[in-house]
Amino acid sequence: MAPKSTAAAKQPTTSTPSALHETSPAAAGNAVQSLLKAYNETTSPRLKLIDAFLVFLMIAGVLQFVYCVLVTNFPFNAFLAGFGSCVGQFVLTASLRSQVNPANRNEFKDVSPERAFADFALGSVVLHFFVYNFLG
Amino acid sequence: MFFKRVVALLGLVLAACARSSTGDSVLVVLDSSLDKEAYSVFWDGLVDKGYSLTFRSHKDARPAVVEDEVAQFNHVVVFAPDSKNLPQDLTPQSLVALLDKGTNLLLALSSKKQTTINTLASEFSLVLPPPGTPLISHFPARDTPATVVPVPPPHAHPVLTAGLPPVWFSGVPFAYTPNPLLLPLLNAPAEAFAADTTSDAGADAVVEAADRAGEGLWAGSSLALAAGFQATTGARATFVGGVEMFSNEFAQKELPQGKLSGNKQFAQDVASWSFQESNALRIDKVKHHRVNETEPRETYTINDNVVFTMHVSKFNSNKDTWEPYSGIQDMQLEFTMLDPHIRTALSPVPGQPGEYSVTFRVPDRHGVFKFIVDHKRKGWTHLQSTTVVPVVPPQHDEYPRFLSAAWPYYIGAMSTSVGFVLFSALWLAGDDREGKKKGIKTE
Amino acid sequence: MKLSLLVLSSLLAARETLAGQLSLQQARFSVLGGDVSPLRQEPISLSPANEPDPVRLGPSDTLKLAFTVVTKEQDSDAEPKGVQPHQTFVRFFDKQSGEEGIVPVRVAQSGKAKFELSMARPPSSLPPTPLQGNETAPLTVSLLMGSFDHSPYSLQLFDLYLPPSQPAPEHPDEKTFHPQPEIQHTFRPEQKLPSKFVSGLAALVVVGGPWVVLLGLLSQVPLSTPHLLSPSILPFTVSLTALEALLFYYWADLKLGQVLAYGAAVGLVTVISGKTALEKRGEWRLQGKK
A63 vs C251: CB contact, 8 Å cut-off? Predict the structure, then answer.
């Protein structure tokens, strides 16, 4: 199993230098595509689940911000609560991802993935409590 | 026999029920040169109304007006035009102190001497001519001397009864500086003037009086012969230019046109105003509360709708009671914090006698406000009422909620919650294939 | 006793039958301009029907009156005699405001009298004539003559329009004795809300967009959820859902005290179920490693 994964891991490193030398938009598109391909191949489904959730939160936050700027910010507390819930949840989820990511095992020797998830859940519930308090 | 006596006594008691709103004991200080009986029409009129009169000579010091800082009488009448000095308890300072204690005064000025009452009159914005210059009028041609003047009373006066016949007057007129506390009761006729000459040879002196530096000529209808002063303490002080207006002789004298003079009725009107019988008002009750509530609150919130209600009574001297009075059409309420933020009309409520009410919206500034009613009109008691009430911004749970503008935010927060729940479910349910794909050693 | 003496003395002091009626002769008035040029000269008639037209004075004009005071015996053909009456006044009266001014006239022993009113140096007793609209209010000018020995006489002369002057001084408290102008408070304008349609549309976008993206991404991910309904995991999931539902209910309807109480109860359940769930997961993870 080990040689395969290392071979798989080696592949991107040899192919990227040649890709980086090209500067045309097609090359940029190429870079993005290869980035996505590499992402797809290297991340586990569980991490992809977290990433999907992160994207969801980011879009929700951006949309609420755009509404506030374009239409009205009148119940400002409501805007802060809604936007804050997205941002706060994003932060918690990102920290869960970094704690659960096997590549970071060395940094988080004391924190098991279950412990990380427990922290994440507690943090989220407290965040939502404050959000609903402030939402008005 | 016994029954008749009881009925008579009862009748006397009932007739003597018309009293002043502040009490019915009157001290009359009479000059020893004046005969008490010569004014019996006036005294009897007062006694019939229910006052109890105590007479005292101007030289006596007893009965004292004030004892141990307490006023002993409700009203004091000083008819002492011939005495330059009065006892200690009737000096100008003592009389002013009496007004502070709520005692009403009826004072007669002197045309011959500079009495202490004349000096006191200048404190009340009255300007007297020099001593020895009584009022003179050559109009209309009549049998009496020029110093006895028939004076037509004013039309539509708030204090005097309507349709009063002309009044005989003898004494000193006075000018007055514009002072809203002063209510002129009788103005001199336009042709009258003050002069000390008694024959036509004094014509030059009259003209020279006008050139004299100072006040010049006292003439015309801008002079008053009787004026009432409503002090800010609520007591009333009336200055009359001469005592003869109250005498029996003038009350029974016929006017040049042939009618009987109005002196008797005029004297009673003046006395009833001075002794707080007529035009006496008071505030019974002041209430404030939010619309749709009945109890006042400790604090009000900005933009509240508040109802302010006031009950006012007027004294009815015939029945000796305070009756609700709805006749004030121009009362105003001020809602003030340092400066009036709102000034609005406090109008009488139809159907509720004596009740005045207004509903208004509290300004959107917070602070300590006062409901101020300060109703002052010439000749009427001052109505003053101040109620302090704090106004606070809305509490944290009094703001409007569930607004349509915030729907996206509500939806956003809820969708985050739902997403979290979904994510947790998927995460907890998922298969933790840790060592499979990446194969990184977890040592 | 005193009373009778008083009555007697007043009777004695009563006037004798007045000798004659005061009257005027050769009465005329003139208005002179600032440069002493005669602007108007008219006689004054004693009959009220012939009242002259209103007199208008400019700021530098002068009004002059000249007349002779005489007595006329009743039922007698004797010549009227010039006399100096006790009182000869000119009265200026403003009917609208009730202000009045009296100026005495110096009459010689022979009865000749001259009166001058110079607007350059007006007497202080003139009533104030403030401007009302375009003009000042007219003053009624009349002549009053009274004497101890003769019947009095009064004559209304004409209406007088004076140049505008300062209004009569008012006591500083005077305006509090009349109704004062009303004061309204201008409130901050209400917050304007955007139309419900716009807000509703935005809400749909905010909920729809991200969910569409999320579901799309999740469909790409090869997820497997074998333990979804496992009895050790499910209670935890359910209690987390319950907590979130409680929080939503708190926003809609509850008070702080209530939500903390319920939250403590549900939280306890969550903690217990969470412990079991996560322990189980830990076991599986370590087993899976083997």
Answer: no
Structural domain tally of chain C?
Answer: 2
Residue C11's CB is within 10 A of a number of other CB atoms, namely: 10
Residues C281 and C140 in one domain: no
Q: Which two tokens stand for residue B339?
A: 């400066």
The amino acid occupying position A124 is S
One of 1.10.3470, 1.10.150, 3.90.1200, 3.40.50 is the CATH number of B15-274, namely: 3.40.50
Phi, psi of B47 (to 5 degrees): -65, -40
Specify whether C245 is located in the same domain as C116.
Answer: no
C31 in the same domain as C155: yes
| C236 in the same domain as C130 | no
* Subunits in contact with chain C (3 or more CB pairs closer than 8 Å): A, B
The alpha carbon of residue A75 is apart from the nearest alpha carbon of chain C, in Å, by: 10
**Domain boundaries of chain B, sorted by first residue:** 15-274, 281-392
Domain of C262, in residue numbers: 226-290
B389 φ, ψ to 5°? -145, 125
Is residue C183 domain-resident? no
CB contact under 8 A, A82 and B442: no
Total-model pTM: 0.77
- Local confidence pLDDT in tens for the 290 residues of chain C: 455 544 444 444 444 556 788 888 888 888 888 787 888 888 888 887 878 888 888 888 888 889 888 888 776 667 778 888 888 999 999 988 888 888 888 888 888 899 888 888 888 888 888 888 888 888 999 999 988 888 888 888 889 898 888 888 889 989 999 999 999 999 998 888 888 888 888 889 888 899 999 888 888 877 777 766 778 888 888 999 999 999 999 998 888 888 899 899 999 999 999 998 888 888 887 887 65
The complex scores an ipTM of 0.80
Contacts of B364 in chain C (CB under 8 A): 185, 187-188
Superfamily holding B281-392: Macroglobulin (MG2) domain (2.60.40.1930)
Cβ contacts of B424-427, under 8 Å, gap ≥ 24: B424/A121, B424/C237, B424/C240, B425/C228, B425/C237, B425/C241, B426/A49, B426/C223, B426/C225, B427/A46, B427/A49, B427/A117
Separation of alpha carbons B371 and B344, rounded Å: 11
Same domain? For C155 and C25 the reply is yes
